[in-house]
């Protein structure tokens, strides 16, 4: 399957480099490019790519707001968004993930890492180390939590006991391999549990699962 990519980047030399790198891949196609925020929203809306490579700082509308509009809550069939920026700041990571991004890379990462990053998010996986996800989301946990849930309401009630165990370990920042070792089950079994969790909770990827675990207080609950 060919991965269709839209590149949202205001620097022409960087944009050209991305186009060259992606078009050289046998499994990728650059469907379009955009140099500012509004153009990015329009390009993604009309072209419906699989993956959007998103710069944080763009003219007229920043990449976080663009991400929120194309992949945020309520968006039907959103693309995967891979945020690429020069700024290694927790706040940007947090805001990008909250807006709906599936991954985060720095611009100084090798092009091969970026190419593989596109493949990673296209598969529905998150491109952010579990430990970084836990640190960033945990640091902003108070902001994530909404008003108290209705008494008796449990958004995670649809999960089986084993699935809740797996979600708790995801929220702790463990990778699939680490979860397999912790629960003494196979790697493939963990992947199956993760897939079931995402399907039952209607989530795109494990980053959203971490966010939900913190929002509901589940990540802090030892029960």
UniProtKB/TrEMBL annotation:
GO molecular function, one term: DNA binding
PROSITE patterns: HTH_LUXR_1, HTH_LUXR_2, RESPONSE_REGULATORY
Keywords, ordered alphabetically: DNA-binding, Phosphoprotein, Transcription, Transcription regulation
UniProt cross-references to SMART domains, sorted A to Z: HTH_LUXR, REC
Modified residues annotated as 4-aspartylphosphate in this record: 55
Domain spans labelled HTH luxR-type: 152-217
Pfam family, one: GerE
GO BP annotation list: phosphorelay signal transduction system; regulation of DNA-templated transcription
Residue ranges annotated for the Response regulatory domain, each copy included: 4-122
Matches recorded under PANTHER family: TRANSCRIPTIONAL REGULATORY PROTEIN NARL-RELATED (PTHR43214:SF24), TWO-COMPONENT RESPONSE REGULATOR (PTHR43214)
Listed name of the protein: DNA-binding response regulator
Taxonomic lineage from the root: Bacteria, Bacillati, Actinomycetota, Actinomycetes, Streptosporangiales
